[in-house]
Design brief:
The protein is an alpha/beta fold. The chain contains 9 helices and 9 strands. It has a 6-stranded mixed beta sheet, sandwiched between helices. α6 packs antiparallel against α8. The protein binds guanosine-5'-diphosphate (GDP) and magnesium ion. Guanosine-5'-diphosphate (GDP) is lined by residues 13-19, 32, 34, 38-39, 61, 120-121, 123-124, 150-152.
């Protein structure tokens, strides 16, 4: 019997959803930083064996007060993940707090498939605190399972994975067994560049940027991939911040991103970055469509 299904990871920003997805899939699919709202799209990671296939979805964190259309689109990716799950993983961590009347509980109540609560970042607290938190959550909502884990240290992630497989229904092979994700290489290239922007710029800059790969071409004469990508910002002042004095800042982004892209595609890369202003793109339907928020 072949088992397969969709496992969707949801939760607020920064609790460790992307870290867990990467730990479970064993590849660096989703970018991770300590900044909230790093993940903007729904990203899938596929784990296959001879007799099962688990399709994990990493989602953007649930944004409580959307401030622009991009946020609304991000929340729609999360809503979508309620619809097709065979198992839901609802993630929290050792530090965040929920009110008993948080709207998420109403949504979770309507879910007909098993919902596992994952309490992440247990490496940050003594076992006694973890135990207390488990009790607290257990009183609040009837989860199918409660798993204390550390996605970062991979504590308890293997037992979690085994239980997920156990909960998969009988089902077909949805994707070729050697496929790891549904997004093209270009998408991951733009995500790697965006990760470097998140890491190196302060305040509103990362949240004002989007990255698109304009071309991705194998060099006809050398074992080299030539990539052109554009960083879109919302204002002219942001463009000069991205570029930096004498181009120093963008140069650093380019060097770091190139290294990671080379690891990701297992080839030498020539990366060229451009910066363009797109006025207020986060609230512009046309831009959002171009950037894949639909
Ligand atoms: N100490 C600790 N930090 C973690 C753990 N999992 C994730 N993090 C960190 O929490 C931050 C947010 O992680 P990320 O996976 O991007 O969270 P997401 O926004 O829910 O996808 C990053 O700095 C991670 O390194 C964990 O198990 N323990
Ligand atoms: Mg994430």
């Amino acid at each position: 019997m072949h088992k397969s299904g969709f496992v969707n990871i949801i939760g607020r920003p920064n609790v460790g959803k992307s870290t867990l997805m990467n730990a479970l899939v064993g590849e660096r699919m989703s970018i991770i930083t300590n900044k909230p709202q790093t993940t903007r799209h729904r990203i899938i990671g596929i784990v296959s064996d001879e007799d099962y296939q688990v399709v994990f979805s990493d989602t953007p964190g649930i944004i409580r007060d959307p401030s622009y259309k991009m946020h609304e689109a991000m929340n729609r990716f999360v809503d979508g993940s309620f619809k097709d799950a065979d198992v839901m993983l609802f993630m929290t961590d050792m530090t965040e707090t929920y009110e008993d009347d948080d709207p998420i509980f109403e949504k979770l109540k309507k879910v007909e498939v098993p919902v596992f609560l994952l309490i992440n970042k247990t490496d940050l607290a003594p076992p006694k605190e973890v135990a207390q938190l488990i009790l607290k959550w257990d009183k609040r909502f009837k989860f199918s399972e409660i798993f204390p884990i550390s996605a970062l240290k991979k504590h308890n992630t293997k037992p979690l994975f085994n239980l997920i497989v156990k909960n998969m229904p009988e089902g077909p092979v949805y994707y070729p067994k050697d496929q790891l994700t549904d997004k093209p290489e270009r998408f991951f290239v733009s995500e790697i560049i965006r990760e470097k922007i998140l890491l190196h710029y302060k305040q509103e800059i990362p949240y004002s940027c989007e990255v698109l790969v304009d071309s991705f071409k194998q060099d006809p004469n050398k074992p080299l991939v030539r990539i052109h990508a554009t960083i879109y910002v919302m204002r002219k002042t942001q463009k000069s911040i991205i570029i930096g004095q004498g181009g120093e800042s963008i140069k650093r982004i380019g060097i770091e991103a190139r290294k990671d892209i080379e690891t990701f595609i297992q080839q030498k890369v020539f990366l060229e970055l451009f910066v363009k202003v797109r006025d207020n793109w986060r609230d512009d339907d046309k831009s959002l469509k171009k950037f894949g928020y639909n």
